[in-house]
Amino acid sequence: SFAKLDHHRAIRQGFPEVVFCQGKTVEQVATIVERLAERNKSVLATRASKEMYEAVRRLVPDSIYYELPRLIVVNREEARQDDDRYILVMTAGTSDIPVAEEAAITAELMGNRVTRVFDVGVAGIHRLLAQHEIIQQANVLIVVAGMEGALASVVGGMVDKPVIAVPTSVGYGANFGGLAALLAMLNSCAAGIAVVNIDNGFGAGRMASIINHMR
Amino acid sequence: SFAKLDHHRAIRQGFPEVVFCQGKTVEQVATIVERLAERNKSVLATRASKEMYEAVRRLVPDSIYYELPRLIVVNREEARQDDDRYILVMTAGTSDIPVAEEAAITAELMGNRVTRVFDVGVAGIHRLLAQHEIIQQANVLIVVAGMEGALASVVGGMVDKPVIAVPTSVGYGANFGGLAALLAMLNSCAAGIAVVNIDNGFGAGRMASIINHMR
Amino acid sequence: SFAKLDHHRAIRQGFPEVVFCQGKTVEQVATIVERLAERNKSVLATRASKEMYEAVRRLVPDSIYYELPRLIVVNREEARQDDDRYILVMTAGTSDIPVAEEAAITAELMGNRVTRVFDVGVAGIHRLLAQHEIIQQANVLIVVAGMEGALASVVGGMVDKPVIAVPTSVGYGANFGGLAALLAMLNSCAAGIAVVNIDNGFGAGRMASIINHMR
Amino acid sequence: SFAKLDHHRAIRQGFPEVVFCQGKTVEQVATIVERLAERNKSVLATRASKEMYEAVRRLVPDSIYYELPRLIVVNREEARQDDDRYILVMTAGTSDIPVAEEAAITAELMGNRVTRVFDVGVAGIHRLLAQHEIIQQANVLIVVAGMEGALASVVGGMVDKPVIAVPTSVGYGANFGGLAALLAMLNSCAAGIAVVNIDNGFGAGRMASIINHMR
Amino acid sequence: SFAKLDHHRAIRQGFPEVVFCQGKTVEQVATIVERLAERNKSVLATRASKEMYEAVRRLVPDSIYYELPRLIVVNREEARQDDDRYILVMTAGTSDIPVAEEAAITAELMGNRVTRVFDVGVAGIHRLLAQHEIIQQANVLIVVAGMEGALASVVGGMVDKPVIAVPTSVGYGANFGGLAALLAMLNSCAAGIAVVNIDNGFGAGRMASIINHMR
Amino acid sequence: SFAKLDHHRAIRQGFPEVVFCQGKTVEQVATIVERLAERNKSVLATRASKEMYEAVRRLVPDSIYYELPRLIVVNREEARQDDDRYILVMTAGTSDIPVAEEAAITAELMGNRVTRVFDVGVAGIHRLLAQHEIIQQANVLIVVAGMEGALASVVGGMVDKPVIAVPTSVGYGANFGGLAALLAMLNSCAAGIAVVNIDNGFGAGRMASIINHMR
Amino acid sequence: SFAKLDHHRAIRQGFPEVVFCQGKTVEQVATIVERLAERNKSVLATRASKEMYEAVRRLVPDSIYYELPRLIVVNREEARQDDDRYILVMTAGTSDIPVAEEAAITAELMGNRVTRVFDVGVAGIHRLLAQHEIIQQANVLIVVAGMEGALASVVGGMVDKPVIAVPTSVGYGANFGGLAALLAMLNSCAAGIAVVNIDNGFGAGRMASIINHMR
Amino acid sequence: SFAKLDHHRAIRQGFPEVVFCQGKTVEQVATIVERLAERNKSVLATRASKEMYEAVRRLVPDSIYYELPRLIVVNREEARQDDDRYILVMTAGTSDIPVAEEAAITAELMGNRVTRVFDVGVAGIHRLLAQHEIIQQANVLIVVAGMEGALASVVGGMVDKPVIAVPTSVGYGANFGGLAALLAMLNSCAAGIAVVNIDNGFGAGRMASIINHMR
Ligand SMILES: Nc1ncnc2c1ncn2[C@@H]1O[C@H](COP(=O)(O)O)[C@@H](O)[C@H]1O
Ligand SMILES: Nc1ncnc2c1ncn2[C@@H]1O[C@H](COP(=O)(O)O)[C@@H](O)[C@H]1O
Ligand SMILES: Nc1ncnc2c1ncn2[C@@H]1O[C@H](COP(=O)(O)O)[C@@H](O)[C@H]1O
Ligand SMILES: Nc1ncnc2c1ncn2[C@@H]1O[C@H](COP(=O)(O)O)[C@@H](O)[C@H]1O
Ligand SMILES: [Mg+2]
Ligand SMILES: [Mg+2]
Ligand SMILES: [Mg+2]
Ligand SMILES: [Mg+2]
Ligand SMILES: [Mg+2]
Ligand SMILES: [Mg+2]
Ligand SMILES: [Mg+2]
Ligand SMILES: [Mg+2]
Question: C-alpha angle with apex E207: E202 to E209, nearest 5 degrees?
Fold first, then answer.
């Protein structure tokens, strides 16, 4: 009764409602995931603590937990044979990986092939240029970066495919919890970039998946 | 010499460099547009004053000026017969139209069919629901809204297509020049939304065009 | 001596002074609640920890504790038979419930009938429209929402009754501790909405109660 | 076609759609007011320039213009004989009067009796206490204040009726365009206060009117 | 060697350097206090943890600790017989007392008579007016308030003596860690008010002491 | 009727109400100054345009206008023979002089002897040290500085008298309209400093005058 | 008397005091430049209007005006034959040129060879890489960029020489007057970068000059 | 695979990539440091917890840990005999020492002689002037200060050498995590100052080292 699950969402938007665990009690999360798992083949819960997962697993034994990106996943779809299009998930640094994995696993769960290229920040531009081929052939790109968030602009200027930029809260001081990267990405002078919330790997994965499935 | 035009951009990204006129002198704008018009079939200059256009027209007589969105356009492409996919450009209010037109004309110049639905803000939700059909059948959606920017969330929850949200600076007081709508759109609980800079109709039109051309 | 209780308040404003526990010591809270309970039939203390309640219960045994909204309540009024007017408390998500309960319990303690409709955020607008009847018949509405806070605008456009909007700090990143929802609600283009502080369920409940008792 | 007027609003909410003129062209304003005036007895347009009014008057000769609050008003209702309940509109300073008049005229147009008490800021508290009677007998109160916005808290503690607080942008320096008063009002330790946007006299007048008509 | 104590300060400014403990190690605090206590009759250390005090007491046995305001004090001055002028320290709420005590104890240590009037916030203005006499006869006033900080303005308008306003971080939500009260106090329309940093009881006590000693 | 002049203020606080002209119409200013000048020997109006002064002079011929600080002054007191105590008004740069003059003239009008030392910013510390004598002998100090506002800290560490710090909006970029200097002054590690609003020369002059008259 | 010129500065720091014209009257600027020109071979005045220059030229006929960067320059040094080290001044876009010229002319006036490379923003990274040689051989680099300010990071990662980053206010919306570029540059993950104020070409030129003269 | 180490950096920029430990797992840090230590004579890891160091030491036994600045260092260079140029690292207070040590140890590891002068904040300007000699003879200066950050301006005006300013988060209230010092330093009216991120001792040490090695 505390949650009005949007069971219609899978029909309306192609994927069931995703659970945002932060601010919910352990019991609420467990109950919601259970109810979703009764009706859907895929379930995704983000920002879940380990303790939440323990409670979920008791009710939904085939659920999995990804520790770094803090995701609970139920995936009962048979393996989809995706074509050769892939979503490329890139990070500027190693510390951005948890957010990148949230995006990547979200996209995979939604039936996309995902390629990862991590730790290619612009302070060593050759690392990025060395990935030229893999960047050019991506169908959709997710660029995850904290600190000054410059990677999005450089990648945005290299491709003719859509770039989803994800600012992260990695950094300190005048980073102001990701604000620096967020503003940088919003002000990118490269066109073909759009931005999601700070640390919102899920949102980027979802958006990229929708675009990647367009024919 | 003051401008290193990125003449390679049309090849690399499918459309020539777009001129950002704000902060440039009238002479700089005129020279840059002229040089771009020598090499390209389409030229776009954003945030152009009428005075800038007067100077451009002397050098590039077939250029056009759109007063509301302050765009200078050169378009020598023969009419492209687009298929039945369209980009839907929506606004919450009448005051958001200049930004919406910047997006719409950008997308049209890049070869897209564009449909406009203006003034359907959420404070009268029936106006929005009355457009249900046209919303469902859009291939990509651009949602332009100032004030509280809520339209993006409602539309984002209705479709399974990508939504590009454009916050505008329309409003006053605690709107803080578009910040209110920007934050609202970034925090949207609907997935499948990504955001561009405040008043950045051009960026939204470009992003939507890239996505709309994916096959 | 550390607290000058405003014992006159019940006469002046119809309800005794409410204790804001945050920033007070356990002893201060216990003493203040005890002194208020000596003179009043109803006592309310907000943002109280469990430890504070333990200390209060020793002095005021008929006090109750609501864990989610962190309220200490003393209620010695005989059950008031309210007429059929009700205050409707709505939330956009499940995570907003603690704040909503603070509002609802405050209003109930002040003699109002309260109806709860939780988890009807705008990303699935049909959930909201399904509650059309219950929304239309409410006498006063409290809309509790975090993230982009869009629910207030949509509800505000549906009714001709006053809407009290409560932004919550639910969210992350560019939510900035509830700022996003606060700004959205202040900038609502629906008229008939007024806003209280972030997470201020108590303030909303009090305001709604005052309005609901107007004849 | 640029404006989808919400002609249903008068039925749904008891008053037709109000025109927000800022950011609209003179022609748009004139056309919208004309179309509204064809169907409604009352029309209100806010933040209108004198030039806009000139254009409106040509199409709607019985429209009036209030220069200080920048309102265009059409009022064809026969004088409603209101009972003795009144909305009290107060200001802290003389510079807050334009916003206060926006609120007062809005409320009057919606059929309320309005009493004005201006320039009673808290730096001379006796000026406020001298109005004790008129404050106590008000049915709803609108408190308009810039600078530190303290008037709302003091008035809020004196009455058992709802207080709508309107921060204004009057001030300078660390006032930050009304932010200081806005934050003060949101953080008021008096209960029974709710806040509208900076300089939003209209919103306060509308909210007060809804409440004042409750029986 | 890590600290260049300003031993000249007692001569130059009438009171030895005061230790700001936050961000220092326990050992640093203990050493600095010891060195100051060797040369001075009074020593004051602010924002000191209990653990710091334990370390200090071992080296300076006649030091005292005030838990609520977190002060370490050494006071070897013989009792000064102050004249009848007093500094009045007022708070709006009970939660503001720790900051107020920091101010009061600072002023007492510097040889001032201090009177305390706590919990007289403006939401119950009669509580404040009841203190009229004690307010009028104060020589300097320190007003400590969180939330909307309105007390400073009201008091500032009642007296012809200097008012030092201290915003506190008491509050939540749009209080933003004391910003709301700070801005309110800076924008006070009462003249004769100056402001110190958020939660800076020490600074207020020092400033008041300097003024109170003027002849 | 639009202004409730606080005629009691001269008795209560030793100086009549001061007119804040910004946001008032020319007529309002003229009327208010006239009414004040009928009852008081001194009148002060701040932030007055030249046009406002023209209107005032017609009604109050013995009023004077100071163009740089934009003050209208009426001064009919016979010259007060002040003792040798003086308020020292200092600025960091030449651009801060208008605000400094607002403070100085305010203080002079209130019967204080004022000494001016301008353009002694800390980037050339010898300029400041060269004024050592005049600084040491001041009774109260007003330090006016924009940009980084460092002058207040250095002066604050040199004297045992109260320092009123006035941040100015002089600067650009990350100065954010005076915010940089304001924050610097609030965070000064010198004790004996209190701060008024950005550009509030009047407030500083008033505060300094009150202190300077203490015996 | 309004200005205490720091005539010692040329000796202490190798270049006379530079005049910041904003906020000064035309007369003040003219007088200050005249006095500086009497004693120094070089004079520099920043943020000067054309009208200010007219007044200066009457007093100092050999002064020059640079319109774009708004500089007044007096340069009576005989041409210094600099060695082959140069300061490289780069911009991301054409609109950043005025700030870049302020930096370049400042550095030239202080005896440095300056090379300019404008309009090589990262959205077309090949434009930047094409300048590889000229970048590698610079002795000090000044990187001027608005919008997302990413150029500083990319250049910072290419060289082993110091980079002075200058954010500009070029952009709009969530650029917030240069804040986006400023934060990006401060958070650069490339080491060897330091930042000056938004639009502070002068400061960058001065800093680069000091470094470039180190032997 | 999670980290693409920039092994080319030592060649390109004279020092290997530095590890930013915050946001990385203990295992990631250990692996990265190990891999860097295999190829380089010097390794530096910043913001490392003690636990991280324990893991590193198992793999790289000759690594050292500096607890206050939280640095892991590997240094296998034979002692470089630096000439008599030194980098001067100064702090305003004792609480700024951890950041200052991060800068100093970084610079030492990169082959510079470093002199430390701590706790010479401007509130006791004689402490600073007493260091006149050591300040004048420094080749590059790093000024580390929290609170109001004024030390940078005063030092900047005393020398003709480059000053790297490091704001720290030391302070409270309106310090806003170092923002106050950051803005002050960016707005310094002394020329020859450039700024790095809040608490970024590493960046300052690196920048100073590059400059100090210029010949
Ligand atoms: N304390 C620090 N502050 C800023 N940047 C740093 C710091 N420590 C290391 N870095 C940089 O951070 C980058 C490493 O990021 P990552 O790939 O996440 O390890 C390198 O380019 C370093 O130069
Ligand atoms: N420059 C100023 N800054 C701040 N407050 C002022 C200023 N000038 C006048 N005031 C105050 O503003 C109030 C008058 O406001 P008003 O009623 O709008 O005229 C009085 O309380 C004055 O003390
Ligand atoms: N464009 C500029 N940005 C920052 N500081 C400047 C600028 N131009 C001059 N200055 C500094 O401003 C000071 C002069 O301030 P003032 O006394 O008001 O003329 C000198 O110390 C200059 O170094
Ligand atoms: N309205 C706009 N908003 C953001 N970026 C733009 C806009 N118009 C053009 N641009 C981009 O700005 C760059 C041109 O900058 P510039 O070299 O200063 O002319 C190009 O990369 C364009 O894609
Ligand atoms: Mg890395
Ligand atoms: Mg509309
Ligand atoms: Mg939900
Ligand atoms: Mg007044
Ligand atoms: Mg209380
Ligand atoms: Mg000067
Ligand atoms: Mg360009
Ligand atoms: Mg110290």
Answer: 95
Question: How much is the pTM?
Answer: 0.96
Q: Tens digit of pLDDT for each residue in E57-98?
A: 999 999 999 999 999 999 998 767 667 899 999 999 999 999
Torsion, CA A196, CA A200, CA A204, CA A206, rounded to 10: -120
Whether residue E124 lies within 8 A of chain F, CB to CB, comes out as no
Q: What does the CA dihedral F64, F65, F69, F73 come to, rounded to 10 degrees? A: 30
Of A17, A35, A151, nearest to A88 by C-alpha is A151
Which three-class secondary structure string do you get for chain C? Answer: CCCCCCCCHHHHHCCCCCEECCCCCHHHHHHHHHHHHHHCCEEEEECCCHHHHHHHHHHCCCCEEECCCCEEEEECCCCCCCCCCEEEEEECCHHHHHHHHHHHHHHHHCCCEEEEECCCCHHHHHHHHCCHHHHHCCCEEEEEECCCCCHHHHHHCCCCCCEEEEECCCCCHHHHHHHHHHHHHHCCCCCCEEECCCCCHHHHHHHHHHHHCCC
Mean pLDDT of H163-190: 97
A12 CB near a chain B CB, below 8 Å?
A: yes
| Average of per-residue pLDDT across F27-46 | 96
- CB C198 to CB E118 under 8 A? no
How many other CB atoms are there within 10 angstroms of residue H50's CB atom?
9
| Tokens of residue H185, six digits | 């330093």
Tell me the CA distances in angstroms from G40 to C110, D94, G9, G44, H158, one per residue in order.
Answer: 78, 53, 11, 10, 20
Give the end-to-end CA distance of chain G in Å, rounded to a whole number: 40
H or E, element range at G173: none
DSSP output for E64-92:
EEETTTTEEEEE-SPPP---S-EEEEEES
Separation between Cα atoms, residue D196 and residue C195, nearest integer Å: 6
User: Of A66, A89, A94, which to mutate for an interface test with H (greatest number of H Cβ within 10 Å)?
Assistant: A94
Task: List chain E residues with CB under 8 Å of D94.
Answer: none
Q: Do A199 and C120 touch (CB under 8 A)?
A: no
Centre of ligand 1 from the C-alpha of residue H171, in Å: 25
CA distances G117 to E54, G71, G114, G193, H198, Å, are: 62, 20, 10, 18, 30
CA distances from A175 to A170, A183, C14, C49 (A): 8, 10, 48, 33
Query: Which ligand 4 atom lies nearest to the CA of residue B9?
Result: 21
- Ligand 2 pocket by C-beta < 6 Å: which residues? D 93-95, 119, 123; E 189, 191; F 17-20, 46-47, 200, 202-203
* Kind and range of the H or E run holding H85: none
Q: Are B186 and C171 inside 8 Å of each other by CB?
A: no
| A124/G158 Cα distance (integer angstroms) | 7
| pLDDT in single tens digits along all 215 residues of chain G | 788 888 888 888 889 999 999 999 999 999 999 999 999 999 999 999 999 999 999 999 999 999 999 999 999 987 776 678 999 999 999 999 999 999 999 999 999 999 999 999 999 999 999 999 999 999 999 999 999 999 999 999 999 999 999 999 999 999 999 999 999 999 999 999 999 999 999 999 999 999 999 98
HSE, CB side, 13 Å, CA atoms: give it for residue H158. 24
Amino acid letter at D62?
Answer: D
Is the four-CA dihedral D103, D109, D110, D115 of positive or negative sign?
A: positive
**DSSP label at B92?**
S
Helix (H, G, I), strand (E, B) or coil at G107: helix
3-state secondary structure of B143: strand
Q: What pLDDT digit, counting tens, does each position of H49-77 carry? A: 999 999 999 999 999 999 999 999 999 98
Residue A150: C-alpha distances to residues A123, A143, D113, F19 (Å)? 9, 10, 58, 51
Complex prediction ipTM: 0.96
